[in-house]
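Morning. Coffee machine broken again, so started the prediction first thing and wrote up yesterday's gels while waiting. Chain of 188 residues, entered below exactly as on the submission form.
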Amino acid sequence: SSGINAEWPLRPGASEKKNPMRDISIKKLCLNICVGESGDRLTRAAKVLEQLSGQEPCFSKARFTVRSFGIRRNEKISCWCTVRGAKAEEILERGLKVKEYELWKGCFSDEGNFGFGIDEHIDLGIKYDPNIGIYGMDFFVVLGRPGYRVRYRRRAKTRVGTKHKVTREEAQKWFQSKFDGILTNKKH
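Came back before lunch.
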């Protein structure tokens, strides 16, 4: 069969090397706390994110009024921030520790990204503050490979080839090898 993954015999004297362009890494980690109301609770949730990430969080607004939820259109209802680099890895490690490195297979998307939620932010090692309270949060991890820049750059923007994209299976394998993670068949 032809293609990148085809087994070709090496030429004499060539060493078996791993292709560095195939390495999977964390491109970004998105943290989100949806409070469902604006005001004091949202401000306190933003403080939690700031303590965790060391950056100022952004706020999201409701897209439309939902009477049963008690939210109005354009009212701020959640806060989020995007973390990259070593800081993202460190926060993800703490989040997975709370989950005991165990994720449901359904947490992984077809594009090879994954997400999970935790119920109490104090499990991440942040001291409990009675003035702030306890908040749950969502973690979402975007994985990528070197060369993904072609999708986002300004000039000569193009698509990432199908064979170069991170698949669900590759993401699950990466999670298992990097964090010694366990994949379960049922939701908790």
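The mean pLDDT is 89. Going to sketch it on the whiteboard this afternoon.
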